[in-house]
Amino acid sequence: MLAASLAAFAQDEMTTVWETKLGHQTQYSGTGTEDRGYSYAADDKEITVFDNKTGATKWTGRYKDLTPSLRKVDELIPFWESDAVFLFDRKMGKDQIAVLNLADGKLLWSTDKYQNVTEANVVYIPEKDGFAITLKEQLVFVKAKTGEELWATSKFKGVVGEYVATPDGKMVMVNFMPGGLAALFTGFKNQIAKVDLDNGNILWENTYVGRAERKVITKEFLYDLDVQGDKVFLRMNGMQVYDLNTGANIYSAAFDYTPDKVVGAPMGAKTFGVYEAVADPVIVGDDLYVLDMSSKKSQYVKKYDRNSGKLLWTSPEIKGGAKAVPNMYVVGDRVLLQIGGNVEAQAYIERRTTNSDGSVTITKEWRVWHPNVKPCGIQAFSTTDGSFIWESERFKKGITNAVVVGDKFVVCSGKELYSLDMANGAEKFTVPVAKGGVGNAEQVITYKDMVVVIGEKGVSTFNMDTGEPVASGKYKRADLHSVTGDRMILQTEGADLACFDLDNCSFKQFKARTGAMAAMSTEGDFVYVYDKRNVTKLATH
Q1: Where are the alpha helices (DSSP H) in 390-458?
Q2: Tens digits of per-residue pLDDT, 19-57?
Q3: What is the set of domains in the chain, with CATH numbers?
């Protein structure tokens, strides 16, 4: 009966809400929230903005008609918060920039004053409704709606990264240098600064340890900046704390770590990054637990007093060495480390193929995947003094990842699920993931009181307490695209989609053209598929 039920699920197609045929190809796309109500698709000569509810065109146009200076675009950057889209036409030292209102297509402003500007070095600051644009010699700040330059400074080098508004109406900002812009800057240094955005005055500046980055495809910052009371907390490869009023270092519990050689870049990668190779610091009350990965030969766990930065203890060396420690959990009196396993990689890839007639076809791919890194293992340390407590021998050959929910600690080897006693590493249960009917596990996550196995051929769930299989949905090999609430999207290498209901592992599918791009709505109710000249809105329920 279960098999028959799953077969029925597998035959269901995702419901098409609407399908719109565009008058041009889709090289760029952006999906606005359902509340915002519109999205866009564009190529190098035209852009169309359409209504999310109906698919009807709100406006469309060729760049040469919308702007006085552009005929085509080499890059297009939406800034949703400001309802603006930047268009760039590269012209060998005479770059043209035009900014359109996304809602109606009206030209806001254009300029040829700023050269070598890319997506990486423009940041929208909503608190001041302006754009911070990083140039070779200076940082300029312009009004979003008019392009009027309010100020410029040469004292802040690099691109504005994560920032936070302060109670006195100023900003604390961290700079960074995107990989592709290394040649643009001279005299770059790691810089955290408090800035008056009314006039560009640098009120104080200091340095930070590590490398500030954004993910190359999904664009999330890989660090976090926060102001609490009179302190600035920078979480980046540990924790660094500054005085909000003076910028003075209060303490640093951070280290340099670069995961560049943990995973190799794919052929044709223009941009590439490896992420989630080191677990974030864990804060429990006034205690701060940090992984020290500064040495490639030896790694440690360190515990600090979060308020003063005093080092309370350093653990013994992590046994066997570690190229990556993707997860660290602190539960009760144990620090649990997942050594090795899945990390995240992102790349923008261009492949050139010479056709039989001599012409060249360029294929573009925006890829996010989860390669596996060795050596692998699970180790536990005491929260009291950092002493080594136990190590599981089960995971020397492989591990996908480990998850914690409450007092449950479940580790997946790829072939088995193990529930481990946090106190001593004893196995509470062991269950083959093959019981879920979707092959070996590629990755596990949690949902409610279940472990969700993303397998080689679909998705299955297991009871977190007993290890018993709960539900299963058999699909084909696919990568995790996104999860929102009870909906999970998997996407194949050929761009086909399957949307799983995590409550019962039923799913609906959609067969897309190779190379199609998909975006899940914020609430998880819809998926938008951009396929050459078509945009399709699909319901996930």
Answers
A1: none
A2: 999 999 998 999 999 999 999 999 999 999 999 999 999
A3: 113-254 (2.40.128.630), 261-399 (2.40.10.480)
